[in-house]
Amino acid sequence: MRTRALAAVLVATLVAAGCAGPQGPTPVAFTKIDLAGAPVTLTPVGESLLVGVRRDGQPVVPALLRRDPGGAVTEVPATPATPYGNLARWTQVDTDGTRLYAVGGERGGAHGNVRWSAWDGTASGVVEKRQAFSTFGGYGAGDLVGVVVTPSTPAIVGNWENPTGGFDIATWLPVGDDWIRQPSAGTALEASRDALPFPIAATRFGAGIMVVGWQFANGREEPVTWHSTTGVTGWTKTPLPAPSPGAAMSVHCDQSDCYAAGRLNGSLALWHLTGDAWTLLPDTPNYPVTDKDVLPAPVPTPTGVLQLVSEGDTLKALHHTTTWTVHTITGPTGKPTAAVAIGPTLHAVVGDRLWTAELDSLR
Predict the structure, then answer these.
(1) Among residues 363, 352, 347, 351, which one has the least CA distance to residue 30?
(2) Model pLDDT for residues 163-190, shown as the tens digit of each residue
(3) Would you kindly state where each structural domain of the chain is located, as residue ranges?
(4) Of 116, 120, 146, 148, nearest to 134 (Cα)?
(5) Residues 6 or more apart from 78 whose CB is under 8 A from it?
(6) Cβ pair 168, 160 in contact under 8 A
(7) 233, 241, 235, 320: which is closest to 285 by C-alpha?
(8) How do residues 43-98 score in pLDDT, each as one tens digit?
(9) How far apart are CA 94 and CA 120, in angstroms?
(10) Fold of the 133-293 domain
């Protein structure tokens, strides 16, 4: 009898383990949200979600859609002022809850450079503000990372040629309808012979801005952050803990801490800022990340942090508390490019569709 009882327990244990699968918990189903356009950017606005979309073949290609907590979708009219504004793909959209600011771009011209457009407005509509060609283009121009709204000012972040070589990280501030580039010389944003900076993503942090990316220094690629204390002033540079070459590629910040995601030696890496110190999260599951990939920003959860990655066409959600849990996702296929949480709901762009899931299902 005892032998039979032990055998029954063993069989039940094996069946339960088989249901979970060798890769972790039972797969989680995501829900597709149909939109009039392909989503590109996600921006929380209170309890609503602002989705930047691209519409091929429409009179106005860039569009903004606002999805309220009940699921109703309304359009925020976007009015271009230039031919390239009419073709722009959103790079980043940000808000202080009242004003909306956006940056978009589309390649064109004889050299195929990105032609940038700057937009602002409210929930009633955004308008492209025509800029002189030399504002974001011409000799010495680099790329734009996006736009960040701080308590004191909105700012555009990108890079611009350093007079002695390489590119500085650059910032622009609005003066009327014009965006004016601010000097980087003498700040932590300046390039030098010892360290060449490459910003990749930016977001608000406290009263300032957190920029993540990498620098070429000491003969290798090093993940780095740049943080301003107020608006675009008081910049400091902080190399991230890195046992191997790599870069920080996306970032999410709350009022008191930040998470950054990136790559080290071609594999996924995540860092956490608490107080004044960044730490590398240990034992991160091994997923390949290249310099051509786009990593969604990490999503804080009530018990840790969530990172979306893809394995082939299969979406995975990696949840870190004190250890890692790997969830396989059913529904979406393709690569994730954006993710945010509003209350208990995760919103993600995977491929060219918007998907949602409840965070409780991803613990």
Answers:
(1) 347
(2) 988 999 999 999 999 999 999 999 999 9
(3) 133-293
(4) 116
(5) 60, 62, 63, 64, 119, 125, 126, 127, 128
(6) yes
(7) 320
(8) 999 999 999 999 988 778 899 999 999 999 999 999 999 999 999 999 999 999 99
(9) 10
(10) Neuraminidase (2.120.10)
